[in-house]
UniProtKB/TrEMBL annotation:
Protein name (Swiss-Prot/TrEMBL): Protein DENND6B isoform X2
Protein family: Belongs to the DENND6 family.
Gene Ontology, cellular component aspect: recycling endosome
PANTHER family reported in the protein's UniProt record: LD41638P (PTHR13677), PROTEIN DENND6B (PTHR13677:SF2)
Length: 585
């Protein structure tokens, strides 16, 4: 498709364009780039169509200067269409996650670190993967040789805002399929006017005559805080469409076929176990995978996950090899071929066609992996895993009662989400308490010595502490908590949690050390110090200041100002030649 003139021509190489060069990443942009606001939300928008000769083909990428490698283009094409086993007629929405070629690249959007420092860990920008949100349409069309119109509109982002982007697609995709390029260009220009996604703020996002109102969660929010209330101070016309969440799925709907096994699935997620989810369609597979990976919040999901995965994926061989143990990944698939390919995986969840009535669908049964058949495998959770914790019968009873009383699904989801949150918190709180005990006392931090070290995490000491400070204090569930912790220590989630907490504690120590220096009498310290020692102090203070100003240290503004004053005072005490070296004109 040719590039269009108009709004897109405001920018270098602007307008809509077909996929171009094969190098990866975004072209160099000036700080005033007109698409900076757009790129705070989306990397690009893609249109994938079906070509009789080529199969799936990338029709256009917008903005046209966003460069994808050939491998990335191929992945987007295959992941944007349901495979032939799904038989999706009409409109289907789903999502995928794919690796950026070359791994983690420097994000061009400069606010990544600032945003990530304020966002909950589960909502931070993806550093090395793209998230694709797809609206696929397949309808009969006699004007097309194959007899069907088949096209996907794809939003590519590094933000895990599945609820927001699905809502956005449901507004723009039907209009785009009718009006094509002009509509898409206008929408992208509207997104380029949106305010940045700042955690803790409620934002009004205008698009196609509608205002979507969202609140971006912040890491200081209480996990059980109430959903967004409409802002009363603004008389917006038209009245905004208020999204209660940018990211939360309807958990009850996603878990309906597996409610009796939600707790076991939570354990498998906690332990980072490899799991295949085989569903009838990509919308079911992607929603169930995202629901599973979200049930550990507020703990960050540290394993790989693919909400929708196909045999054409560039990582197919890597993830399905039998020469090594299955990787720590949750894989959502729709092709029964994976039953044969992934027979060596320890956990396979197969779900059947959805039941549309209000009653609870037939629950999948626990089955031994040996009962997996290449063809005609029945729905079930195929695993030899034995849960460590006893089943939460009270939760199941409340959910079943809700079904009988026709309780709204959003309330059922809130109940389920709250119970999973409480379960995760009961598991994590003892770890947090033990980790906090490893922090040196503040009184041991002195200004003129390096801060003391954080004591090592000793698993045996922690396990002994559970007798008087374990999860039994906050959770009524009985079971083998010790065994669950022992397995957790071997999982990627313990490693991810420990690294993050250790990093935060080290930064806190450094901040306390900087405060101690700023509260000390620096003139008295300098009296008997050599020039080398004084210069060393200046360099160290400057390094701490740079880190603090770059949002890497939790330091008060007053401390920063005092540190700058100290640096000035110390440099002023040095000979003129050294002052010139440290503060060149």
């Amino acid at each position: 498709m040719e590039g269009r003139a108009g709004a897109g021509s405001r920018r270098a190489g602007g307008g809509l364009g077909a996929a171009g060069p094969t190098s990866s990443g975004r072209a160099m942009r000036t700080p005033e780039a007109p698409w900076e606001r757009f790129s705070a939300w989306l990397e690009c928008v893609c249109v994938v169509t079906f070509d009789l000769e080529l199969g799936q083909a990338l029709e256009l990428v917008y903005p046209s200067d966003f460069q994808l490698t050939d491998k990335e283009k191929s992945s987007i094409c295959y992941l944007s269409f349901p495979d032939s086993h799904s038989g999706c007629l009409g409109d289907t929405q789903f999502s995928f996650r794919m690796r950026q070629c070359g791994g983690q690249r420097s994000p061009w959007h400069a606010d990544d670190r600032h945003y990530n420092s304020m966002a909950p860990v589960a909502l931070q920008r993806e550093p090395a993967h793209y998230l694709g949100y797809v609206y696929f349409r397949q309808v009969k069309d006699s004007s097309v040789k194959r007899g069907y119109f088949q096209k996907s509109l794809v939003l590519v982002s590094r933000l895990p805002f599945v609820r927001l982007f699905q809502s956005l697609l449901s507004l723009i995709a039907p209009e785009y399929f009718e009006k094509l390029a002009p509509c898409l260009e206008a929408v992208c220009n509207e997104i380029d006017q949106w305010p940045a996604p700042v955690p803790g703020q409620t934002l009004n996002l205008p698009v196609m005559g509608v205002v979507i109102q969202v609140r971006i969660p912040s890491r200081v929010d209480r996990p059980e805080s109430s959903p967004l209330k409409q802002c009363a101070q603004e008389n917006l016309l038209p009245a905004p469409v208020v999204l209660a969440s940018v990211h939360e799925l309807d958990l009850f709907r996603c878990f309906r076929p597996v409610l009796t096994h939600v707790q076991m699935l939570w354990e498998l997620m906690l332990l980072g176990e490899p799991l295949v989810v085989l569903a009838p369609s990509p919308d079911m597979s992607s929603e169930l995978v995202l629901a599973l990976t979200s049930c550990l919040q507020p703990l960050k999901f540290c394993c790989d996950f693919r909400p929708y995965f196909t045999v054409h994926d560039s990582e197919f061989k890597e993830l399905t090899t039998r020469t090594q143990a299955p990787p720590n990944v949750v894989l959502g698939v729709t092709n029964p071929f994976f039953i044969k390919t992934l027979q060596h995986w320890p956990h396979v969840l197969r779900i059947g066609e959805p039941k549309t009535s209000g009653d609870l669908p037939k629950q999948v049964k626990l089955k031994k992996p040996s009962r997996l058949k290449t063809l005609d495998t029945k729905p079930g959770l195929y695993t030899s895993y034995t849960a460590h914790l006893h089943r939460d019968k009270a939760l199941l009873k409340r959910l079943l009662k809700g079904v009988q009383k026709k309780r709204p699904w959003d309330l059922q989801s809130a109940l389920l989400r709250q119970r999973l949150l409480e379960l995760t918190q009961s598991f994590i709180i003892p770890l947090e308490h033990y980790m906090a005990s490893l922090m040196p006392l503040q009184q041991s931090i002195t200004p003129w010595k390096s801060p003391p070290q954080i004591r090592p995490f000793r698993q045996d000491d922690f396990l002994r502490s559970l007798e008087h400070a374990g999860p039994q204090l906050t959770c009524i569930l009985k079971g083998d908590w010790l065994g669950l912790y022992r397995r957790f220590f071997k999982s990627p989630h313990f490693d991810g949690w420990y690294r993050q907490r250790h990093k935060e504690m080290a930064q806190k120590l450094e901040a306390l050390h900087l405060e101690a220096i700023c509260e000390a009498n620096i003139e008295a310290w300098m009296k008997d110090k050599s020039e080398v020692e004084v210069v060393d102090l200046v360099l160290k203070l400057r390094e701490k200041l740079i880190r603090a100003q770059d949002h890497q240290l939790p330091v008060k503004e007053m401390t920063l100002q005092r540190a700058q004053l100290y640096i000035k005072t110390v440099i002023g005490s040095l000979p003129k030649d050294l002052q010139t070296v440290l503060c060149p004109p």
